[in-house]
TrEMBL record:
Keywords attached to this entry: Membrane, Transmembrane, Transmembrane helix
Protein location: Membrane
Segments traversing the membrane: 28-49, 55-74, 95-116, 122-140
Membrane topology: Multi-pass membrane protein
Polar residues biased stretches: 168-177
Family: Belongs to the GtrA family.
Chain residue ranges for the region called Disordered: 160-183
Taxonomic path: Bacteria, Bacillati, Actinomycetota, Actinomycetes, Kineosporiales
GO cellular component, one term: plasma membrane
Domain GtrA/DPMS transmembrane residues, every copy: 31-150
Record-given protein name: GtrA/DPMS transmembrane domain-containing protein
GO BP: any one term: polysaccharide biosynthetic process
Top-level taxon of origin: Bacteria
């Protein structure tokens, strides 16, 4: 009976194939679903606070953003990135908040640049810049969350390779023991 031999891929270890590609697509789908839900929470809570309960616009937006950010964190931690390594909640939420703060600043900078240095006042142009900044920030967040907030669990073969080799017995030279004894 012929023996099946597995030939290594030429694409290297970073290639997305088969199971890894399906996992990445599920992760992206969950990331988008969590983000969409958090977006609805943000919009809905802002509408409730500002439109019906009489909060100021900035206060309402700040509270809505904090709540939606917390909802997004819990959704990402417990669903979208649940298969990845877990760090302490303090560390992961701190990084999550920092990344969101940075992307908020980037989004505001895009709007500021289009509005003031480019002197664009039209709602359609400003909204187009807003949508572009949302797209850019979404890609940045996904990448940052995968890299720092919800890091991949170390592979067992990578952990074994990074461990120091056991110390050799003998006089400290690199000559194998059998050769040394024969000399």
């Amino acid at each position: 009976m012929p023996r099946i031999v597995r030939v290594p891929s030429r694409r290297g270890p970073s290639a997305l194939t088969g199971r890894r590609a399906r996992r990445r697509l599920r992760e992206l789908g969950a990331f988008g679903t969590v983000g969409g839900f958090a977006f609805l929470v943000d919009i809905g809570l802002f509408q409730l606070l500002y439109g019906h309960l009489g909060f100021g616009a900035v206060t309402a937006k700040t509270l809505a953003t904090l709540v939606s950010m917390s909802v997004a964190f819990l959704g990402h931690r417990n669903w979208a990135f649940a298969h990845r390594d877990r760090t302490t909640i303090r560390r992961s939420f701190g990084l999550f908040a920092l990344i969101n703060l940075c992307t908020l600043a980037l989004g505001a900078a895009v709007i500021w640049f289009v509005r003031y240095p480019l002197d664009q006042e039209g709602l359609l142009v400003i909204q187009a810049a807003n949508i572009a900044s949302i797209g850019l920030n979404t890609a940045l967040r996904y990448t940052a969350y995968r890299r720092w907030v919800f890091p991949a669990a170390p592979r067992p073969d990578a952990v074994a390779a990074s461990e120091p080799a056991p110390a050799q017995s003998g006089s400290g030279d690199t000559v194998p023991t059998a050769t040394r004894e024969a000399v």
